[in-house]
Design goal:
The complex is a heterodimer. By secondary structure, chain A is mainly alpha-helical. Chain A contains 18 helices and no strands. The chains are: A mainly alpha, B alpha+beta.
């Protein structure tokens, strides 16, 4: 089949090739590129999320007021911080669930959503696992950011790509090339360098153990979440999948918060400020939009490029978060200082991260039509 | 037959009978899933692509829809793909049949 012939027949967006074989290759490459772009967008949205994610702590009528109420009720500062993290996780999960429900409605996928929901044993159960792991990861991020520093939280988060890669090979039996492994390691090294100035530039911590536990939760839970999501997405639509994942996370946080409230913790004492204060509402909506979109693009990338590549490119969020935090909060707040000891590692880390993503993005897509290892494809 | 389950389950089930082209899969499932629009057609096509990446199906034939009569009349020249269920897909489908709420053997 000649491409000119197709063009003469009114064909649009045809590949610049001259045979059916080339046309097929171009088509596979297009799918791979779609996955790469989705993962890159995930990194951008994830990076943006840190802006409302930290700004929300500065809204005096919401989290700070809730912490004051909890301290007045007799709880210590470490406990109130942890409770505030739980409250924020709940708000984050609720707003994401709402936004994704509207998103699925707009795509006409409510029917598929219902079908996926009711098939609990065959499909929905994996999203329960993904929701629990995701809850642990988000909570861990906030705990690490509060008890150590945002830089440590971001680096700990990046380690999820390592967990995700190992699990995608062992549990999902997905193919990861040598180039893929190298790129994952390079990106993790890049993230370490990126935040070296912040981490070693004086981490004042009220409770370092809690911070480290939070960081470990973040890496392990996000890696596991990607793995469960990868398994579930073999059977289900990504858009419906994310909706269910956030639904179950919301259920989990509601249970936790209600138990805390019944135990006498005034955790809901400032919830009303979200709807009465337009600034808080705006920040919460931005939080939801950036996180929901980050997940939409993250889950969309998995079927096209695999969990390992999707997570590795997604880990560029560390670089994106630095860029956005510098833009919105200033250099000092974002990387801990504007001297060379802080700026040089940041620039060096950004370059290393970009090199890692370049290695993955330019990988040959030919062998990746199916992401499964050939030994699995054979069947029993 | 699996009833009321996510679309991918049924894609695997229709492919269990015989290998099919993507436009044949669309024709077989669009009424059942109320996906008669062009977006619905692309949804089914997208799920077929994902089923390949999951290893449940494999691509065994290609053709170009020169005049757009088979798949997309508004965009002639799209690549048509023929799919076949893999042994892994067959094994997975059998597991799913045991897990879904409504399955009646044909």
């Amino acid at each position: 089949m000649d491409v000119n012939e197709i063009k003469n027949n009114g064909g649009s967006k045809v590949a610049d090739t001259s045979s059916l074989d080339d046309f097929i290759k171009a088509n596979h490459k297009k799918k791979f590129r779609f996955g790469i772009i989705a993962a890159l967008l995930c990194a951008v949205y994830w990076g943006v999320w840190y802006v409302p994610g930290y700004a929300v702590w500065e809204m005096p009528d919401f989290l700070p007021a809730a912490m004051v109420n909890m301290e007045n009720a007799g709880y210590g500062s470490d406990v109130t911080y942890t409770m505030a993290c739980i409250l924020l996780c709940l708000v984050n999960a609720i707003i994401d669930t709402l936004i994704l429900f509207i998103w699925n409605g707009a795509l006409g996928k409510i029917g598929e959503l219902k079908r996926t929901f009711v098939e609990f044993k065959a499909a929905n159960i994996y999203f329960v696992y993904a929701g629990i792991c995701g809850a642990g990861a988000v909570f861990g991020t906030y705990v690490a950011a509060q008890f150590l520093n945002p830089g440590f939280a971001a680096v700990a988060g990046v380690l999820y790509a390592l967990v995700g890669t190992i699990m995608s090979v062992l549990y999902l039996h997905q193919k990861v090339t040598k180039r893929g492994y190298i790129a994952v390691v390079i990106m993790i090294v890049g993230a370490f360098v990126l935040f070296a100035g912040t981490i070693f530039g004086g981490a004042e911590s009220s409770n370092m153990t809690l911070g480290i536990i939070g960081g470990a939760m973040c890496a392990i839970c996000w890696g596991l979440e990607g793995t469960f999501a990868g398994k579930a997405l073999d059977y289900c639509e990504p858009d419906c999948g994310i909706q269910l994942r956030f639904f179950w996370e919301t259920v989990l946080w509601i249970i936790v918060c209600v138990v805390l409230a019944i135990s006498g913790v005034p955790i809901f004492s400032t919830m009303a400020s979200i709807v009465t204060d337009p600034y808080i509402l705006l920040v919460v909506i931005l939080l939801g939009f950036s996180f929901a979109w980050c997940y939409v693009t993250w889950y969309k990338s998995f079927p096209f490029i695999g969990v390992a590549r999707g997570q590795a490119i997604g880990s560029l969020y560390a670089a994106c978060s630095i860029v956005f935090m510098v833009l919105f909060f200033g250099v000092d707040n974002a990387i801990g200082g504007h001297d060379m000891a802080h700026v040089l590692p940041t620039i060096g880390g950004l370059i290393i991260c970009l090199f890692g993503s370049y290695l993955i993005a330019t990988e040959d897509a030919e062998g990746l039509v199916s992401l499964k290892d050939d030994s699995v494809m054979g069947g029993e | 037959m699996i009833v009321g389950a996510p679309l991918k389950f049924r894609i695997m089930e229709v492919l269990e009978k015989r290998p099919m082209w993507n436009y044949e899969i669309v024709d077989a499932l669009k009424d059942e899933y109320h996906l008669n629009s062009s977006i619905g057609r692309d949804n089914i096509n997208y799920d077929c692509i994902e089923a390949v990446s999951a290893g449940f199906c494999k691509e065994i034939g290609w053709e170009i829809d020169v005049d757009g009569s088979k798949f997309d009349s508004k965009h002639p020249g799209r690549l048509l793909t023929k799919y076949e269920l893999t042994p892994y897909g067959k094994k997975t489908l059998n597991e799913l049949k045991a897990k879904v709420r409504h399955y009646t053997p044909d």
